[in-house]
Specification:
Chain lengths: ~425, ~120
């Protein structure tokens, strides 16, 4: 049980950090010191009342002891292990990932950073490879140049090597040479112009645009007061500093939408309506006379609140995500098909609400609301577009009640053993 | 005198090859494309066919297959002109029964040696 191994180690670290002896903590928690010793060395499972008592004695929330404080780091490490396994490397001790992350946080970060770098380089290589092999413009230009070069080479050699060449032929070959060298120059220029112009596109293949935009927003703490202070130019300038052209394009579109949203639903009004409570996007939409999608997007930007948000299109591709702590969002690959987001996607207009558990994190619960809207940008007879929004809010786990659905990050690193929606085997120990 | 049918859509390349081979004692019948099909090739009564892989209208590969399927031409050597970066097409041409490849841009001496070799093998 990887989570138990984690918990014991974490208990011990916390106790040592507080400078307390096992006997003191054990006494407060009402267990024997030797039993605590077993727990701390992950030889006994700890859960329920004992865990709550120990957490109380150590002055930390139960969830922090039971789940990985490293959270996303654990998922990233599992993903790294999955990649290495796919390459035929020796299997990593995936079951002890939290122990590794807990004991060697620096090394764990190194592994994750290397893996991230490797993934981005792989994407870049793929993008460049595609460009070389499937780019009709490139191969056409090259063919044109080679063809002209072929003619020039043969013709020039004939002129150079044939001593008794007739005047008529010589003139003809001179004309051909001239025409072909012009063709070659034009072809070469076109190639150079093309390769210059493709730098931006090659860059875009290197970092996933969505991640780049996410990093920008996370860096701002997911707060954009400039939207309503008439300082949109400040945000636009920040967007222009993003590394890749694709991310800039994505962020520009997102920013324009966010500005329209801010005009339709000012943050001050939204904060007043929330009054510190939990939101219902549909009620808010009705109250302010705006689309539910506007409310979803505005909620993700409420200062000092953390409303996780995931947006996808009809293909299920994630268009936007604001993480909520503990709710696993895949960094690579497809998301969990059990997300209520996808339930909503299939039934435009339906209000989907669910108490969601996360596989491998027994003490966490989320209240999730999802809603999809259909748009018809070309009117009747035109295409139908869908955007689904999913709001993710931490919720208290109520003892004895099961969550409606247990979700994971993405199949490869999801520990759920009995999942009816599994697409591919998990590399995480199932249990 | 060896008879060569040359199918090449680049007129200047065709002209250079024609000049070279004529000087070497071949009779060259040049076609600008493969639209005349295998009949046009047969009409030249060739001892050797030089065929560009990339032709307008009909692909060099299709024409090669037609030549190999033609009773009168099946045994005639075919020298195929290719540009670099056509690895997959070359494999297909090999399966279709090409005799030899010549990569553009070729040296004239290479071209002459290949033609002499292929015509000599046959005759």
């Amino acid at each position: 049980m990887p989570m138990q191994a984690l918990t014991g180690t974490r208990l011990r670290e916390r106790r040592l950090a507080l400078g307390l002896r096992q006997a003191e903590i054990a006494g407060q928690a009402g267990i024997s010191a030797s039993y605590l010793n077993l727990i701390e060395h992950n030889r006994r499972r700890v859960q329920g009342e004992v865990l709550v008592a120990l957490a109380g004695a150590l002055g930390v929330p139960v969830a922090q002891l039971a789940e990985g404080a490293e959270g996303g780091l654990g998922d990233d490490l599992r993903a790294a292990a999955a990649t290495a396994a796919a390459l035929g490397a020796e299997a990593a001790e995936v079951g002890r990932v939290e122990e590794f992350a807990g004991r060697f946080p620096g090394w764990a970060s190194v592994v994750v950073a290397m893996h991230g770098r490797m993934q981005s380089l792989e994407r870049a290589v793929e993008a460049l490879n595609d460009r070389m092999t499937h780019d009709p413009h490139l191969s056409e230009s090259l063919h044109e140049v080679l063809s002209a070069l072929s003619s020039v080479r043969s013709t020039a050699a004939i002129l150079a090597e044939t001593e008794d060449i007739e005047a008529e032929w010589r003139e003809r070959f001179h004309r051909n040479l001239h025409a072909d060298s012009e063709r070659m120059a034009a072809g070469a220029e076109a190639l150079v112009a093309y390769l210059d112009g493709s730098e931006a596109a090659a860059e875009a293949g290197i970092a996933a645009p969505l991640e780049e935009m996410e990093a920008w927003l996370a860096g701002r703490g997911w707060v954009l007061p400039e939207l309503e202070a008439g300082q949109g130019a400040v945000l636009a300038a920040e967007v222009e500093r993003l590394a890749s052209g694709a991310a800039r394009e994505l962020a520009r579109g997102w920013l324009a939408q966010a500005a329209r949203d801010a005009a339709a639903l000012p943050m001050a009004d939204l904060i007043a309506a929330l009054d510190g409570g939990a939101p219902d996007p549909l009620l808010l939409a009705a109250r302010f006379g705006v689309g539910a999608d506007v409310v979803f997007r505005r909620l993700a930007l409420v200062p000092e609140r953390v409303f996780g948000l995931v947006v996808c299109d009809a293909s299920g591709t994630l268009l936007f995500r604001r993480p909520a702590e503990g709710f696993p969002l895949p960094r690579f690959g497809s998301a969990c098909p059990l997300w209520p987001l996808f339930t909503a996607l299939g039934h435009a207009g339906r209000a989907v609400v669910a108490e969601v558990a996360v596989a491998g994190q027994r003490l966490r619960r989320f209240r999730v609301m999802a809603h999809a809207a259909a748009e018809h940008p070309a009117g009747f007879g035109g295409v139908e577009l869908r955007h689904a929004h999913m709001l993710v809010m931490p919720a208290e786990a109520v003892a004895g009640t099961a969550a409606q659905v247990t979700v994971g990050p993405t199949c490869r690193i999801c520990p759920r053993g009995d999942c009816p929606a599994r697409r591919e085997p998990s590399i995480v120990s199932l249990g | 005198m060896a008879r060569v049918v040359l199918i090449e859509d680049e007129p200047n390349i065709a002209e250079a090859i024609r000049f070279l081979l004529a000087r070497d004692g071949c009779e060259v019948h040049a076609l600008p494309d493969g639209l005349g099909g295998v009949e046009a090739v047969r009409a030249g009564a060739p001892d050797l066919v030089i065929l560009d892989l990339m032709l307008p209208g009909v692909s060099g590969l299709d024409l090669l297959a037609a030549i190999r399927a033609d009773a009168g031409l099946a045994a005639v050597p075919v020298l195929m002109l290719t540009a670099k970066g056509q690895g997959r097409d070359r494999e297909a041409a090999e399966r279709a029964g090409v005799s030899r490849f010549m990569t553009k841009p070729f040296a004239n001496a290479e071209m002459l040696a290949a033609v002499r070799d292929l015509v000599g093998q046959q005759g």
